[in-house]
Amino acid sequence: MGRRPAATDPQCGSRAMGRRWPALLLLLLPAVLPAARCPQPCSCAAHGALRCPGPLAGLFRLSLTYLPVKVIPPQAFRGLNEVMKILIQNTKNLVYIGPGAFTHLPRLKYLSICNTGIQTFPDVTKIFSSEFNFILEICDNLYITTIPGNAFQGMNNESITLKLYGNGFKEVQSHAFNGTTLISLELKENVHLEKMHNEAFWGASGPSVLDISSTKLQALPSYGLESIQTLIATSSYSLKKLPSREKFTNLLDATLTYPSHCCAFRNLPTKEQNFSFSIFENFSKQCESTARKPNNETLYSAIFAESELSGWDYDYGFCSPKTLRCAPEPDAFNPCEDIMGYDFLRVLIWLINILAIMGNLTVLLVLLTSHYKLTVPRFLMCNLSFADFCMGLYLLLIASVDSQTRGQYYNYAIDWQTGSGCSAAGFFTVFASELSVYTLTVITLERWHTITYAVQLDQKLRLRHAIPIMLGGWLFSTLIAVLPLVGVSNYIKVSICLPMDVETTLSQVYVLTILIFNVVAFIIICACYIKIYFAVQNPELMATNKDTKIAKKMAILIFTDFTCMAPISFFAISAAFKVPLITVTNSKVLLVLFYPINSCANPFLYAIFTKAFQRDFFLLLSKFGCCKHRAELYRRKEFSAYNSKCKNGYTGSNKASQSTLKLSTLHCQYSAVLDKTCYKMY
């Protein structure tokens, strides 16, 4: 057998080359990566300790990068009295820096320890630098979890800047910055940092600049914030509540995550903001009283002698009022105000929600405990009362949160609007309003159908028909209320938890669908009542004063529906097309004065003011030993009416024509409607 010839298949060749690529990359890698060179006078044993003994004249900068060392022992840099910068970076093998590794470095101005594998905060307390504005940079050390107490004491006796970003910090302990004069403290991008002890700044002076962006901090320490002039907290979504604004006495610039937090810094007392040199009383007085000339030297000449002003470089800006700049600014949907923007609304919303809850709860209790048969009107009335009861719960929830957050809503806005409370309130109000409108429409159609087909008993609406009709209303209302919870618009846009988000096309369609449904329902209700009125208006059947009485009752029904729906629908439709004609502040007036009108009026117009409901109410009270005499009167009246009907049924004249019978029936049916009984005794 001869040797098989070498494969000439191109695929075989490509596979062979593919296997060689990793080996080639490994050969080229050292040329690509930076060289790991141990600088003089250091010794860098592989997987061992780093030592840089001194003294060494002329050594001002020490760069230790990509080294294989694992440990920096105590006294590693002792004697380097002239070194100004030490950079320990990209040394992943480094897992431990011993206590006192940085000892007595009097001229050190910059120390950077970044991207290492150390697991404990390095000891920098024995540096004893005397340089002004010492900078310590500790970054991208993912295994350091804590900044301990007194971590920087003894590092420098002048001002310092701390850049502690991108680490694995989870906690800043008490007295962590004790003994320091902080110019700037950067804790940004410590994505696991959740807790900063309330006394973390105890014993420290400053900082003037604090950056906690992209952290999970849930609260700032209440002590040590007085000296902060610049606060940066972008993408700090867990920080939903700020300390009292009185703690930030010198704050001039704030860049925050939530617009509502900027409301905390509005209308601060002027004495806390104006005149950076206000400690000098003469400067303050002259700033207020002296009119400066174009050359701006009038102020200074009023305070100092001319000989003292020679050689000065004037800073004319210090007399300008120091106004706080805060971003992001509150938008039109979340103005700087409480949930109830006006005090009179705060009173009215309590009255209205109590009225709606008590009225509808009473109607439900009476209807469900009545010994009379559950008729279609009673069934519909139960649905209407439940819907209006839910509206009362929504108003109660809004009123309660407003009373709890009054004067400090900016600190609770995020928790409230993004939490389950606002979602529940939004669900209640949308479900209640749509079910109420739907049920009112069905009640009106049922009354119109009953009167139109009064003599045709086979056309009468039965309970078996009403149940699926109302089941459809419940499903429709639930679907409309759930959609904002799954991303079609949302309830978090405004403090009153209404679906006002119309940024997307789908959200616009959603809001317009609700509004069109309400407008169509109102038109149907008006049309039905007008047809009912003309159906029963007959000179032979009713006197003129009865016509007037019917018209007045009809007007009340239509007026309550109109005042509830018209203003809200008009302004909401304009807002849906992104042409708002009213502010959120003024829309709260509509919310309290117009939006719940039906929920308050319905139990009275359709039940409580009717004779049948009053009868059932007193009969229910008599079971508990109350109003027995009044209940007995209703029983006797009912018994007398029953006897009268029986006698008329057997002995009455049968001469009445079919048309007269029909008109009489219409009159009886419509009287029941306009008295708002919504009951039938048959």
Automatic annotation (TrEMBL):
Where the record annotates domain G-protein coupled receptors family 1 profile, the positions are 359-606
Keywords annotated in UniProt: Cell membrane, Disulfide bond, G-protein coupled receptor, Leucine-rich repeat, Membrane, Receptor, Repeat, Signal, Transducer, Transmembrane, Transmembrane helix
Source species, domain of life: Eukaryota
Enumerate the subcellular locations listed in this protein's record, separating them with semicolons: Cell membrane
> What does the record say about its membrane topology?
Multi-pass membrane protein
Q: What's a BP term from Gene Ontology annotated to this protein?
A: ovarian follicle development
**Membrane-spanning ranges:** 347-368, 380-401, 424-445, 466-489, 509-534, 555-577, 589-609
Question: Its Gene Ontology molecular function terms?
Answer: G protein-coupled peptide receptor activity; hormone binding; luteinizing hormone receptor activity
| GO terms under cellular component | plasma membrane
**Pfam families named among the record's database cross-references:** 7tm_1
* Signal peptide positions (record): 1-38
**What is the role of this chain?**
Receptor for lutropin-choriogonadotropic hormone. The activity of this receptor is mediated by G proteins which activate adenylate cyclase.
Q: What family does the entry list? A: Belongs to the G-protein coupled receptor 1 family. FSH/LSH/TSH subfamily.
Q: What is this protein called?
A: Lutropin-choriogonadotropic hormone receptor
Which organism is this protein's natural source? Heterocephalus glaber
